[in-house]
Amino acid sequence: MDSGDLRKLLIPLGLKEEDFNQELLNRLDDLSDVRNRASHLKINRAKSMVEPVREWDRVLSIVALLDPLDKAIEEACMND
Question: Which of 26, 30, 64, 73 would suit a FRET pair with 57, their CA atoms being 20 to 30 Å apart?
């Protein structure tokens, strides 16, 4: 999921652009770009793979940024 997909899902719930952390959006786009290249292009995937711990750290850095967004979703839903 990239930043555009996230916005398409959450703006209809009442979130505003300022509810989205730009760092989170950038990290989602980076992750999406890496995943898309590995899954959709004919490249040597073995050569493009990174250490699992680096991928885990990348995902954890995204998860850490989701808490404020989760709170914004809750607030938007409560105001509806």
Answer: 73
Phi/psi at 41 (5° precision): -105, 150
How is residue 15 written in tokens? 């979130």
For 1-80, strand residue ranges (E) read none
The yes-or-no verdict on residue 54 having pLDDT over 70 is yes
Q: Taken in order 65, 70, 73, 79, is the CA torsion positive or negative?
A: negative
Closest CA to 75 of 6, 26, 16: 16
Alpha carbon of 29 to those of 23, 26, 35, 50, 55: distances in Å?
A: 10, 5, 10, 18, 14
Tokens at 37, concatenated: 């290249």
Top-confidence residue, 47 or 71: 71
Domain boundaries, the chain: 3-78
